[in-house]
């Protein structure tokens, strides 16, 4: 394991952390993550209308998909999903076909089901992100894309050291500070099933990034 490959919290701690986050999540994150969400949703829709959102949370992205899409959202946290369901009901989001409790590493869908798998602010929290990426690639059709929105840790220097130092603390509250984008690129190279096609810096000031990986046809 490389020094940067810091382990995320286990799923029980993650569920606990997001049970606490659920009531205040939208107040803290809605505006902050809106530009990254818009970018990620646009990238997914460019691939087609069958979309899987892994770690859909309170469903902040769901109303950005057009009614012609068929969106499935999954998440580890029942408490976050309950909020997503309330949004679906309140806003009449008929593009959302299903919401289900599910672990990113064990997706209950057949191979090649989706045109795009979107996962925003999630992959760096999963204890075994390579296993999650394997699942994303499996349920994706050939030529489809994995779209990840996230903060990724600095590649080196003082900022990287600081991010690595605070990583254990960050993971206790369901955040991640030190996970590097290179880990995902390494996954793609080692598996040979997909390639990174773009890594774009977005608001605020490039702190968040949107990464697209295309599954080989
Ligand atoms: C920072 S929130 C992001 C929520 C949403 N994607 C957004 O952008 O607003 C992280 C979400 O990932 C979920 N999560 C964490 N680990 C997961 C896993 N292994 N499988 C599925 N969901 C997971 C958490 O429950 C939480 O809802």
TrEMBL record:
Domain Methyltransferase type intervals: 52-147
InterPro entries reported in the protein's UniProt record: Methyltransf_11, Methyltransf_Superfamily, SAM-dependent_MTases_sf
GO molecular function, one term: phosphatidylethanolamine N-methyltransferase activity
EC number: 2.1.1.17, 2.1.1.71
Keywords recorded for this protein, A-Z: Methyltransferase, Transferase
UniProt keyword Transferase, yes or no: yes
GO biological process: methylation
The keyword Manganese is annotated on this UniProt entry: no
Name under which the protein is recorded: Phosphatidylethanolamine/phosphatidyl-N-methylethanolamine N-methyltransferase
């Amino acid at each position: 394991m490389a020094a940067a490959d810091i382990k995320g919290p286990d799923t029980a701690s993650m569920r606990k952390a997001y049970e606490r986050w659920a009531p205040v999540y939208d107040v803290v994150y809605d505006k902050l993550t809106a530009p990254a969400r818009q970018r990620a949703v646009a990238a997914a829709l460019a691939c087609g209308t069958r979309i899987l959102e892994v770690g859909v949370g309170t469903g902040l992205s769901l109303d950005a998909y057009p009614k012609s899409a068929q969106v499935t959202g999954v998440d580890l946290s029942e408490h976050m999903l309950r909020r997503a369901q309330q949004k679906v009901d309140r806003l009449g989001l008929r593009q959302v076909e299903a919401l289900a409790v599910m672990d990113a590493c064990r997706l209950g869908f057949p191979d090649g089901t989706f045109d795009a798998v979107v996962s925003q602010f999630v992959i760096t929290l999963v204890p075994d992100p390579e296993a999650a990426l394997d699942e994303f690639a499996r349920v994706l059709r050939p030529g489809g894309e994995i779209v990840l929105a996230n903060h990724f840790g600095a590649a080196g220097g003082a900022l990287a050291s600081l991010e690595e130092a605070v990583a254990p603390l960050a993971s206790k509250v369901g955040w991640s500070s030190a996970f590097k984008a290179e880990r995902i690129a390494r996954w793609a190279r080692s598996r040979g099933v997909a390639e990174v096609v773009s890594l774009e810096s977005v608001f605020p000031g490039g702190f968040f990034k949107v990464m697209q990986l295309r599954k080989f046809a």
